[in-house]
């Protein structure tokens, strides 16, 4: 996947600002179920927030990298325990895609 341009990242961050986390990663860490749920959310919404409960900053960073790699997504922004993930859907659903639904926010 080609790296996102600065403009694309900025637009995704603007849209992401209005979103709530849809996937929560708890104490058990990165499981198959978490990866499956993240994939499903990315396919539906393209741009999602994930909240990671781990206290250790390095453990969080490692989980984010592993999750992005496992799902083929790109980490657009990391703030504290929240990461904004983006993955272009093969077939965009205008009713579910956050890029379509929140396009008016990124002008």
From TrEMBL:
SUPFAM superfamilies linked to this entry: YhbY-like
Domain CRM: 2-98
The keyword RNA-binding appears for this protein: yes
Any one Pfam family match given in the protein's UniProt record, by short name: CRS1_YhbY
Alphabetized UniProt keyword annotations: RNA-binding
Molecular function (Gene Ontology), one example: RNA binding
Signal peptide: none
Protein name in UniProt: CRM domain-containing protein
Organism of origin: Acinetobacter ursingii ANC 3649
